[in-house]
Structure formats: C-alpha cells, structure tokens
C-alpha cells in the first residue's frame, strides 16, 4: 500500500515511543489525551474528515472507532509517520490521506458528515478561514469537533520545548473565538475537557435538536 519497509516501521515506532516517554516526563500523556478526545467526539457521522494529520497519534486511535476517515495535511513527512502508525495498528485500510491546504479544502460543499481536528489550530495562521472551510464541507446538518491544548497542556509543551532550546507556538485561535464564530451562524456549541485538552463539539443548525 505504501512503500514502507519493516525496518522503517520499527525505527519510527521506537522514536515515537521515546517521544511519548519524554512528553510524559513533562506532564502530557499523549495516548490518554487522544483517547479522551475520541470519546468526547463520538459518535461521528460519515463521511469523516480530519484536519491536521500530524504524526497520526490521534488519527490512528480515531480509526479504531470509525469505518473510514479522510485525513488532510500539508506535510508529507508527517503523513508518512502517520501511515506507519496506521500500518502498525492495523487501521491503514480505513484511512485516505490527502495533502492540501486546510484554508482551501479540495472538497465540494457538504461532502462530509463530520469534521474533526486535534491540536492543529494553534499552528494555523488563518484559523477562521480554516473553520469557515470546515463549515462549508460539512454543511448545516453536520458536526464539527475541534480540540486543542488547555493551559496545562500548553504549559507542558512549552516546558518540554524550552528544555530542547525551542519554543512551542500557542497560536491565535482560542476555542472561545471558534465557538463564537459558530454560534453566530446558528450552530449549537458544547465545551468539554480531557487530559490537557479543551474540546469544542458543534452541531450544525439543521441538525440541532436542542
């Protein structure tokens, strides 16, 4: 399916586990965090789109609970790591990877039943444009789930990155801003929480029963 060797899988998984250990040293349990977000997001109507593949920690956990998911990112190297994780976890057949800019999603209006994104918006330079695109492709019957680090999570990542001589971005898209953007357009928005995560769950105007 992918031109990936068993040696590359073994080496990549070892690096990811070493990184997970390092993250836990600073108070962030990546597996617990993704499990919390998946549970807060379910159920998710298909077709399902993920914005921001990253290294695939969230994607491969999500794929255990759904039949199919399209995952979009601009970074080919990150998506390759995600592909390796998907193969290792036995969910690769459920995932279709797309490389594209989330500000201009290459999908028609109302193409998806749900759109979901975890720990991506603090990297996004034009968050409201991305959110507008999410609204467009999911339609008024759809569901949008966005999760990003809470203060505890951002603090853990900041301390880790500082220990490596780097800085971790916080972005300019607090969930309160995204929630208000959706509310004024008639969406019903709920706020939930998980390990180091703030979670926004929004239901389109035509699908709201509240």
UniProtKB/TrEMBL annotation:
Q: Which InterPro entries does this one have?
A: Methyltransf_11, SAM-dependent_MTases_sf
Give UniProt keywords alphabetically.
Methyltransferase, Transferase
| Pfam (any one) | Methyltransf_11
Q: Tell me, which GO biological process terms does this entry list?
A: methylation
**Database matches in SUPFAM superfamilies:** S-adenosyl-L-methionine-dependent methyltransferases
- Describe the location of the Methyltransferase type domain by residue ranges: 49-146
Gene3D superfamilies given in the database record: Vaccinia Virus protein VP39 (3.40.50.150)
Which GO terms of the molecular function aspect are on file? S-adenosylmethionine-dependent methyltransferase activity
What this protein is called in its record is: C-27 O-methyltransferase
Q: Which organism is it from?
A: Sumerlaea chitinivorans
Its organism's taxonomic lineage begins at: Bacteria, Candidatus Sumerlaeota, Candidatus Sumerlaeia, Candidatus Sumerlaeales, Candidatus Sumerlaeaceae
